[in-house]
Amino acid sequence: MWDALPTSNGRSDFHANRLASVLYGGHVRCVSFLSTSVRSSPAANLLAQPLNDLGPQKIFDAIATLTGLDRELEQEQALRSAEYTHRNNVRDTERDLNNWDHEMAVVETGIAQRGHARHLLGNAKASWQARCARRFLDGAARSDEIRHELNVLEDRAKELHAKLSTVEDELSG
After folding, report:
1. In a 3-state reduction of DSSP, which class is residue 61?
2. How far apart are CA 63 and CA 72, in angstroms?
3. 40 near 53, Cβ under 8 Å?
4. Using CA atoms, how far apart are residues 89 and 98, in angstroms rounded to an integer?
5. pLDDT confidence of residue 30
6. Given its phi and psi angles, is residue 33 left (phi above 0), alpha (psi -120 to 50 degrees) or beta?
Protein backbone atom coordinates (compact mmCIF):
# COMPACT_ATOMS: atom_id res chain seq x y z
CA MET A 1 0.00 0.00 0.00
CA TRP A 2 2.96 2.33 0.70
CA ASP A 3 3.98 2.00 -2.92
CA ALA A 4 0.48 2.92 -4.04
CA LEU A 5 0.55 6.25 -2.17
CA PRO A 6 1.15 9.39 -4.21
CA THR A 7 4.79 10.34 -4.37
CA SER A 8 4.25 14.01 -3.73
CA ASN A 9 6.94 15.53 -1.59
CA GLY A 10 8.74 12.22 -1.42
CA ARG A 11 6.00 10.61 0.65
CA SER A 12 6.91 12.77 3.57
CA ASP A 13 3.57 14.62 3.61
CA PHE A 14 1.95 11.67 5.44
CA HIS A 15 2.86 11.91 9.10
CA ALA A 16 2.51 9.13 11.62
CA ASN A 17 -0.62 10.58 13.16
CA ARG A 18 -2.42 10.35 9.77
CA LEU A 19 -0.85 7.16 8.50
CA ALA A 20 -3.63 4.84 9.74
CA SER A 21 -6.38 6.90 8.11
CA VAL A 22 -4.41 7.14 4.87
CA LEU A 23 -3.68 3.41 4.74
CA TYR A 24 -6.95 1.99 6.10
CA GLY A 25 -9.54 4.73 5.74
CA GLY A 26 -11.82 6.10 8.44
CA HIS A 27 -12.81 2.70 9.87
CA VAL A 28 -9.66 1.00 11.02
CA ARG A 29 -9.91 -2.69 11.78
CA CYS A 30 -6.43 -3.85 12.38
CA VAL A 31 -5.13 -7.02 14.02
CA SER A 32 -1.94 -6.03 15.78
CA PHE A 33 -1.34 -9.03 18.02
CA LEU A 34 -1.93 -12.77 17.74
CA SER A 35 -1.66 -14.83 20.88
CA THR A 36 0.46 -17.97 20.82
CA SER A 37 -1.18 -19.42 23.91
CA VAL A 38 -3.52 -22.40 23.67
CA ARG A 39 -6.49 -20.62 25.20
CA SER A 40 -9.36 -19.97 22.86
CA SER A 41 -12.42 -17.85 23.37
CA PRO A 42 -15.73 -18.53 21.63
CA ALA A 43 -15.92 -14.85 20.67
CA ALA A 44 -14.67 -13.77 17.28
CA ASN A 45 -11.53 -12.11 18.58
CA LEU A 46 -8.39 -12.79 16.61
CA LEU A 47 -6.31 -11.36 19.42
CA ALA A 48 -7.45 -14.16 21.72
CA GLN A 49 -7.00 -16.99 19.23
CA PRO A 50 -4.05 -19.39 19.50
CA LEU A 51 -1.70 -18.80 16.58
CA ASN A 52 -1.12 -22.47 15.84
CA ASP A 53 -4.94 -23.05 15.35
CA LEU A 54 -5.49 -20.17 12.95
CA GLY A 55 -6.39 -21.58 9.58
CA PRO A 56 -7.73 -19.53 6.67
CA GLN A 57 -11.32 -20.53 7.46
CA LYS A 58 -11.01 -19.53 11.11
CA ILE A 59 -9.44 -16.20 10.20
CA PHE A 60 -12.22 -15.55 7.67
CA ASP A 61 -14.91 -16.47 10.22
CA ALA A 62 -13.39 -14.15 12.84
CA ILE A 63 -13.01 -11.24 10.39
CA ALA A 64 -16.54 -11.84 9.06
CA THR A 65 -17.92 -11.71 12.60
CA LEU A 66 -15.91 -8.60 13.47
CA THR A 67 -17.04 -6.76 10.35
CA GLY A 68 -20.65 -7.95 10.45
CA LEU A 69 -20.16 -9.86 7.23
CA ASP A 70 -21.33 -13.09 8.89
CA ARG A 71 -24.87 -11.71 9.16
CA GLU A 72 -24.79 -10.78 5.49
CA LEU A 73 -23.48 -14.24 4.62
CA GLU A 74 -26.24 -15.83 6.69
CA GLN A 75 -28.82 -13.63 4.95
CA GLU A 76 -27.37 -14.53 1.55
CA GLN A 77 -27.37 -18.22 2.49
CA ALA A 78 -31.00 -17.91 3.58
CA LEU A 79 -31.87 -16.14 0.32
CA ARG A 80 -30.01 -18.77 -1.72
CA SER A 81 -31.78 -21.50 0.20
CA ALA A 82 -35.14 -19.82 -0.41
CA GLU A 83 -34.28 -19.42 -4.12
CA TYR A 84 -33.24 -23.06 -4.32
CA THR A 85 -36.48 -24.12 -2.64
CA HIS A 86 -38.46 -21.82 -4.95
CA ARG A 87 -36.73 -23.25 -8.04
CA ASN A 88 -37.40 -26.80 -6.84
CA ASN A 89 -41.04 -25.89 -6.22
CA VAL A 90 -41.29 -24.34 -9.70
CA ARG A 91 -39.67 -27.40 -11.30
CA ASP A 92 -41.94 -29.76 -9.33
CA THR A 93 -44.98 -27.66 -10.20
CA GLU A 94 -44.05 -27.60 -13.89
CA ARG A 95 -43.56 -31.39 -13.82
CA ASP A 96 -46.92 -31.82 -12.06
CA LEU A 97 -48.57 -29.50 -14.61
CA ASN A 98 -47.06 -31.46 -17.51
CA ASN A 99 -48.24 -34.73 -15.93
CA TRP A 100 -51.70 -33.24 -15.42
CA ASP A 101 -51.79 -31.98 -19.03
CA HIS A 102 -50.80 -35.45 -20.24
CA GLU A 103 -53.44 -37.12 -18.07
CA MET A 104 -56.09 -34.65 -19.23
CA ALA A 105 -55.13 -35.29 -22.85
CA VAL A 106 -55.67 -39.02 -22.22
CA VAL A 107 -59.03 -38.30 -20.55
CA GLU A 108 -60.09 -35.96 -23.36
CA THR A 109 -59.09 -38.59 -25.94
CA GLY A 110 -61.16 -41.15 -24.03
CA ILE A 111 -64.13 -38.78 -23.97
CA ALA A 112 -63.81 -38.17 -27.72
CA GLN A 113 -63.55 -41.92 -28.38
CA ARG A 114 -66.57 -42.59 -26.17
CA GLY A 115 -68.53 -39.92 -28.09
CA HIS A 116 -67.51 -41.52 -31.38
CA ALA A 117 -68.47 -44.97 -30.07
CA ARG A 118 -71.87 -43.63 -28.98
CA HIS A 119 -72.35 -42.18 -32.46
CA LEU A 120 -71.45 -45.52 -34.07
CA LEU A 121 -73.72 -47.35 -31.62
CA GLY A 122 -76.59 -45.00 -32.49
CA ASN A 123 -76.02 -45.61 -36.19
CA ALA A 124 -75.84 -49.37 -35.66
CA LYS A 125 -79.03 -49.31 -33.55
CA ALA A 126 -80.85 -47.31 -36.22
CA SER A 127 -79.59 -49.71 -38.91
CA TRP A 128 -80.66 -52.71 -36.82
CA GLN A 129 -84.13 -51.22 -36.28
CA ALA A 130 -84.42 -50.49 -40.01
CA ARG A 131 -83.34 -54.07 -40.80
CA CYS A 132 -85.81 -55.51 -38.31
CA ALA A 133 -88.60 -53.30 -39.72
CA ARG A 134 -87.69 -54.37 -43.26
CA ARG A 135 -87.73 -58.06 -42.22
CA PHE A 136 -91.07 -57.56 -40.49
CA LEU A 137 -92.59 -55.89 -43.56
CA ASP A 138 -91.15 -58.58 -45.84
CA GLY A 139 -92.47 -61.25 -43.46
CA ALA A 140 -95.94 -59.61 -43.36
CA ALA A 141 -96.01 -59.37 -47.16
CA ARG A 142 -94.92 -63.02 -47.50
CA SER A 143 -97.57 -64.01 -44.94
CA ASP A 144 -100.22 -62.23 -47.03
CA GLU A 145 -98.94 -64.04 -50.17
CA ILE A 146 -99.08 -67.40 -48.38
CA ARG A 147 -102.60 -66.67 -47.12
CA HIS A 148 -103.66 -65.74 -50.64
CA GLU A 149 -102.07 -68.92 -52.02
CA LEU A 150 -103.81 -70.96 -49.29
CA ASN A 151 -107.10 -69.39 -50.22
CA VAL A 152 -106.47 -70.17 -53.89
CA LEU A 153 -105.53 -73.75 -52.96
CA GLU A 154 -108.60 -74.11 -50.74
CA ASP A 155 -110.79 -72.88 -53.55
CA ARG A 156 -109.07 -75.31 -55.91
CA ALA A 157 -109.45 -78.08 -53.36
CA LYS A 158 -113.21 -77.28 -53.09
CA GLU A 159 -113.51 -77.35 -56.86
CA LEU A 160 -111.67 -80.65 -57.00
CA HIS A 161 -113.80 -82.00 -54.16
CA ALA A 162 -116.91 -80.93 -56.03
CA LYS A 163 -115.66 -82.62 -59.22
CA LEU A 164 -114.74 -85.71 -57.28
CA SER A 165 -118.17 -85.80 -55.78
CA THR A 166 -119.70 -85.38 -59.20
CA VAL A 167 -117.54 -88.12 -60.64
CA GLU A 168 -118.36 -90.40 -57.72
CA ASP A 169 -122.05 -89.71 -58.20
CA GLU A 170 -121.73 -90.52 -61.85
CA LEU A 171 -119.88 -93.68 -61.11
CA SER A 172 -122.30 -94.77 -58.48
CA GLY A 173 -125.29 -94.07 -60.49
Report:
1. helix
2. 13
3. yes
4. 14
5. 47
6. beta
Average pLDDT in the 67-78 region? 83
Q: Which value, to the nearest 10 degrees, does the dihedral of the CA atoms of residues 94, 95, 100, 106 take?
A: 130
pLDDT in tens, 94-134: 999 999 999 999 999 999 999 999 999 999 999 999 999 99
Q: What is the pTM of this model?
A: 0.40
DSSP code string of 21-58: HHHH-SS-------B-SS---SSS-GGGSBGGG--HHH
The answer to whether 51 and 34 have CB atoms below 8 angstroms apart is yes
| Cβ-count burial 108-132 (b if 16+ within 10 Å, e if not) | eeeeeeeeeeeeeeeeeeeeeeeee
Quote the pLDDT of residue 132. 95
CA 34 to chain centre: 58
